[in-house]
Amino acid sequence: MDNGSNLWIEKYRPLDFKDVKGQDSIVQRVEAMVKSKNLQHMIFSGYPGTGKSSLALVVAKQLFGENWRDNFLELNSSDARGIDTIRNDVKDFAKTISIGSDIPRIIFLDEADALTRDAQNALRRTMETYSKTARFILSCNYSSQIIDAISSRCVVFRFKKLDKKDMVKIIEKISKEESLKVNDKVIDLLYEVSEGDVRRLENVLQSCATINKTITEDLIHQVISFAEPKEIKNVLELSILGKFVDARKKLLDIMMKYGLSGSDIIKQIQKEVLNLNIDENRKLKMVEKCGEVEFRLVEGSDEFIQLEALLASFALIK
Length: 318
Description:
56% of the residues lie in helices and 9% in strands. By secondary structure, it is α/β, with parallel strands linked by helices.
């Protein structure tokens, strides 16, 4: 589900720097730039759903106030990733002065690591030419995909996944605003399935809330098609005991019950391997096998054959 299709993502977007959770050191440095009105070109790099786009919007709102929409251009580079986008849309916006302010306008390129090489070179030239009238904020998952000529002109901020304490604050705020009932076990599960991604967290909560205002573990599993860890652990225990047929049947039942694909289930298997009561060497070999099977699945191999081979390899590891 993308940003535009989830009303909660827009509803709970940070309005001020204090509302951006889990990135304190980054927020402090960016806020200092805004207060001094000495904004530099910036690269926001890191995991999805950690506040990169939200912080860029906060910067624009704090700098331009009511006129922020007139002085802020947001483009998603995964949709418009060619050189024409840079030469036309970006260049036209960058060469005009700010409306109602003497501060350079802001151009926010989301998923900038999807820009082609030619587009990035054109962007580099645009950044040089219109530095007096525009500042660029580039958001990406992998800063290594941004060419050196651009990286050297920007301050790079690396966003981390949110810690549990920060996710809990967000869950509690949303629960209060939306009159949701959650307990500690539900909060733990929400943190586990969201993996520090606030966007995923809001998607899960909104989907659950449409069904019932009382959020339970079963409801979360039902909504996100996420197998219960104890069921996956049971499959692994059967396989390491050499009960291959039973383990295979149990795994297929789980996949049918929750509608899981091979790629979904392999990630849960890898996590539960670490919780098994076996020696570390066996865990290492099992994790290694998970990596091999995951690669084969990505390359297009039959998921049922690969998962059966994985369980067989677990049974053979001594």
